[in-house]
Fold this protein.
Amino acid sequence: VREVESLDGEWDFVVAPERRDRGRLPRTYSRRVYVPSAWETIPGLETYRGRGWLRRRFHAPGGKAMRFAFGAVSHTAAVYVDGRRVACHYDGFIPWDVVVPGLKAGEHELVVEVENTFGKHSALHTAGAAHWSSGGITRPVELQAVPEVFIDKVFATPVRRRGGWDLDVRVRLRNVGRKTLRRRVAASVAGKRIEVGAATLGPRKTRELRARLGPLRVRPWSAESPTLYDLTIELRDDDAAVDDLIDRVGFREIKVRGKRLLLNGRPLRLRGYNRHEYHAQYGSALPVEAMAHDLRLLRDLGCNFVRTSHYPNDMRFFDLCDRMGFYVWEETNSTGVGFKHPKYREQITACAETMVAWHFNRPSIVIWATLNECDSRTPSGRREYARMLNLLRKLDGSRPVTFASNAWQNDVCLDLVDIVSWNWYEAWYWGSTASVREGIDRLLAWQDSARSKGGKGKPVILSEFGAGGFHGFRSPAHEKWSEEYQSDVLDESLRVYLNHPRICGAAIWQFCDVRVTETPRGTGPPRSHNNKGTFDELRRPKLSYGAVRRRMHEAAQRRGA
Ligand code: ADA
């Protein structure tokens, strides 16, 4: 029912140093760029940190509100329609929308002002985050014509019962008009249709309606058998359908039982990678074909698991994971962030709320996480971990929550999580391939003792381990940074971790080499890249591909998956 148009394609573009006018918005633009894209991929702007403006025209049908849905703008944005500021937004890794009512039928101008600088306005995108923070409209943009009351979101939770499935649905309606209106909602999935209920909404009000659909005759979703169903939500004014929302859902249940993770009641073992949304050719704005290619590589490697380090990913990536069958750990945009930054609390809270709200229905996502390698060592850090983990639980009680820790025996937050996750670089920052087994056994023995204060008996994921290796640096002596040494480390790590009775998930750091943030006087890693990828930034495989592939497939066969 809803009219939807893609605003992807060519937009006018200018960056601050190229502007010759002084007004709030540019009068002239210097070039055309493709949206979505990251401006670092434009010759001359490879290292540009500053402001840019993107402009295009759009058509409004009149009589409807216009909803602009941005997949992501990196990382600070202001939106102008016909020269009037209608929204501003922070965080380059989350989707967001702005609804503009009352536009007359005809052509209008849309300008998006974008900024990717660091400082007091930016708590999550920081120089310390290591990965490069792009500039630009980096994910797709959609224009939707919506009625005054429209379906803002639907939250669907599969419920596993003895011998069957139900689906809990929560429908959020939003009134952007000036009148009080009454609307009815119906939902259907897998051949079953129900009336969800009716709601009266005053101007600028939001309301939620809930219902349970079931019993449903459906096949469960798993990575091995990723069956999806269309859930259709329909909004009615008397007998006329005035809006609708169709989403794919999958029926699966993820639970923690003692030391294990259970998917649909059966033990789950996760084998895969940390993956940055990054490619040398596209920066952080990967086209869907490149995402599908990454997943095909992961499939060939025998993986069933991706951690979206260190931020929420593009919605199309989750769609692909849903359909191809991958388990996903998704986390908020927060690696090594400082809790004292003036904007920290507001920005991380918005990130968590948005991530869960927009990605709630993706069956592939089985874990929510937050605060990679932050302060989980001190009482004040612990308060923040507690707040964020409880927030995730409140937003969605159906998925386990965790964070990736590098505090190990000094961690004071293990009682707060459902899964204990370790970033553990034995054989790289310390130790050798000979100490991989002994090193992890020591850490896990501590975790299972009373001394870990709450980590005892909880499922364990090795959320990061790995080694640097330069593509093309081959060394018969297996020196550090050679493809040979990287391959040795991954081979031994996977041999130990994938067979370890106490470990239910392992994610290699990392899928591909990624560009890191510029550092003063070149103090960063060689090539300004994190070089621990099994692929380089162009997806050229390194020697470790063979070892990883063999270990992952062996493990998959042992588990019959
Ligand atoms: C950390 C961090 C990663 C990466 C890694 C490394 O654990 O979470 O983002 O920087 O270290 O390569 O050392």
